[in-house]
Amino acid sequence: MTFLLSRRRFLSAALAVSPLPALAATRASRPVPPPVSRPGELPDGGRGRIGAVHDGDTIRFKDGAVDIRLVGLQAPKLPQGRRNPTAWPMADESRAALRAMLEGHDITLRLPTTPKDRNGRILAHLIREDGLWIQENMLKEGWARVYTFPDNRLFARELYTAEATARTARRGLWSHPSYAVRKPNPAVLMADIGTYQIIEGVVAEAAKVRGRVYLNFGEDYRTDFTASIPPEVVSLFLAAKLDPLKLQGRAVRIRGYIRDFNGPAIDLTHPEQIEQL
Question: 18-58: per-residue pLDDT in tens?
């Protein structure tokens, strides 16, 4: 079973006023944060109690005027107009799981490198007063998938570990075929165009053409599944000690939105989209 997911990075409408004074600074005025090893070391974005849970990754405080997006994961979406007219499978269950984790608790926001999205939503890691890291727990329970971006990719290793725990146990989303890890079968993946998927397989060929790196998962690049890395971000991979040209013959897991370009393809913008198996 496949289902259509929006290509847009963000789905909820922007609201103009921040619920917390700590969020008034813009990205330009924020100092470069020091290295951190856990979410609790990130800048404090304030504390509150939950007023609304829109879905499994978007909430609002009782006294807030802006939505808060849980950074680092993606949960199934509920219907949101023309952009997403139908609910993703298990969206209600994911929202219920997040609500159960948050209701009745004080929640502290910890702000990542980019503290707001382009729609004005606050991007944050959520820490409960008892120390529970909500993102990690949602992934461990199987109610979301890891979802990172070039400017927000902290703690990817920890998040992947939590996701793997749920996937191995077939908890939550991992019991539903819509969220199953795909093989690089182009006939199957063409039915997934426009959706966010996880593909696992062996890189048949790694090549650089005019600065762009291509990871081909079959003998015919014109029809087989391919992941590509634009020239302007190859340096990010090398800085992370991941040389994509050395992945030939290696088993990997890749995630992203699938598009149709000489067969099914995913554009990679940061190294955390690749897991070496």
Answer: 444 444 443 444 445 456 778 999 999 999 999 999 999 99
CATH of 21-135, one of 2.40.50.90, 1.10.287.470, 3.40.50.300, 3.40.50.1820: 2.40.50.90
Determine the distance from the C-alpha atom of residue 252 to the mean position of all C-alpha atoms in its chain, rounded to a whole number. 17
Q: Residue range 229-240: average pLDDT?
A: 96
From CA 233, how far away is CA 212, in angstroms rounded?
9
State the CB neighbour count (10 A cutoff) for residue 35: 6
* Non-local CB neighbours of 190 within 8 Å, separated by 6+ positions: 260, 263, 264
The domain defined by 181-276 folds into OB fold (Dihydrolipoamide Acetyltransferase, E2P) (2.40.50)
- Token pair of 99 as six digits: 């609500």
